[in-house]
Amino acid sequence: MEYHASAAYVARKYKLDLTPDEVIGEWESLSLEAYQTSVPLKEGAREAVGRLAAAGYRLALVTLSPPLLYEAALGRHGLLDYFDLAMTVPGDYAEGKDPALFAHVCDRLALQPADCLGFEDDLKALSSMAALGIRAYAVADRRNLALRDQYASAGFMQRDWASILADIDNYKLI
């Protein structure tokens, strides 16, 4: 369901005296407060971003979140300046899972896909990265752990940041 339609549905279902735009405004206000004050990083993400940046990697953040939210969270955690590119997935790129999106990011960074590492928690996005030749790492989180077998059968072992960094170290990429 599209965002505006979801807001209209919530207003009807819960008999709120709010327009869909007002519901969206409430959602955005609550989201911004959470991103500014309490949204945590995944365990090990701070170290991973810092080490990759220190090693000279050009870093890109590609997210479904709007800039207002990801800038608030990354700024609070002191990570925003590590990224050479930070962007919300443009609407014509199938919710961040389209191979063309990752090709676009490589182009924006002036890198060939084979020279890139990708970190993602979504299986379809991982498959799109790998199809382009990006070395794709499946980041485990509470939302995708139950799908461990699906990830494995697609060739992606879900791992935490510490084991991903160890793998990168073993390949002498850092």
Give structural notes.
- With 174 residues, the chain is α/β, with parallel strands linked by helices.
- Helix content is 49%, strand content 13%.
- The protein has eight helices and five strands.
- The chain has helices spanning 3-13, 20-37, 45-54, 67-76, 99-109, 123-132, 148-153, 161-170; strands at residues 59-63, 83-88, 117-120, 135-139, 158-159.
- The strands form two sheets. A three-stranded parallel beta sheet has the order 3-4-5. Strands 1-2 form a two-stranded parallel sheet.
- β4, α7 (148-153) and β5 (158-159) form a beta-alpha-beta unit.
- α1 (3-13) crosses α2 and α5 (99-109) crosses α6.
- The longest helix has 18 residues, at 20-37.
- The protein is globular, with a radius of gyration of 18 Å.
- The protein starts with a helix and ends with a helix.
Quick recap of the structure?
With 174 residues, the chain is α/β, with parallel strands linked by helices. It is built from eight helices and five strands, in the order αααβαβαβαβαβα.
Helix content: 40-55%
**First-to-last CA distance:** 42 Å
Total number of strands:
5
Beta content comes to 5-15%
Mean of the pLDDT scores? 92
Low-confidence stretches: none
Taking strands numbered 1, 2, ... along the chain, how are they ordered across the largest sheet? 3-4-5
Overall geometric form: globular
Q: Structural class of the secondary elements?
A: alpha/beta
Number of helices: 8
Order of helices and strands: HHHEHEHEHEHEH
Radius of gyration: 18 Å
